[in-house]
Write a structure and sequence with these properties.
Blueprint: H1 21-24, H2 47-60, H3 66-81, H4 89-103, H5 106-120, H6 134-137, H7 139-149
Helix pairs in contact: 2-3, 2-5, 3-4, 4-5
């Protein structure tokens, strides 16, 4: 049974054969359509991962030349700026550390980089702000997750 709204009434001369919509609905035939490539989603950067990455960078700094240390610290600052919850004070401290390393003051650079690391670490290892799931901020999502799991998301 075709739907009234989907009927096409031809006027004038027709060069193409009419398509029976009811017969082809749901067949999924598409010409020239290829599936797209799939890849996993990028890993979510957490504060713990950002801190671990910065700690690894700090371990490498003493073995590098002043120029390489400045590049490494500047790169760490740029990666930290891309982190959603890092704020701006720790990356700014890393930029100052990179400038100190470029000037040839490795002790000052390490001190500033360690201060940046301390800024990433909340006091006592307790997170400064709770991590909110989409269900915690969206009532519709919360209801959906409750229906799936039968409890609190």
């Amino acid at each position: 049974a075709s739907r009234e709204a989907e009927r096409v009434f031809a006027r004038g001369r027709q060069n193409a054969a009419p398509v029976d919509l009811a017969a082809v609905r749901g067949t999924g035939k598409l010409e020239g359509a290829l599936p797209s490539g799939r890849r996993p989603a990028p890993a979510v950067r957490t504060a713990t991962l950002a801190r671990a990455e910065l700690e690894a960078t700090l371990e490498r700094i003493p073995r590098l030349s002043s120029r390489a240390a400045a590049v490494e610290l500047g790169g760490a600052a740029a990666r930290l700026l891309a982190h959603p919850g890092a704020g701006s004070s720790a990356p700014a401290m890393l930029v100052r550390a990179a400038e100190a390393a470029r000037r040839g003051a490795p002790e000052e650079a390490m001190r500033l980089a360690q201060r940046a690391l301390a800024l990433l670490s909340p006091a006592g290892g307790v997170p400064s702000a709770p991590v909110l799931s989409p269900a915690a901020v969206d009532p519709t999502s919360a209801a959906y997750f409750r229906a799936l799991g039968g409890g609190r998301p």
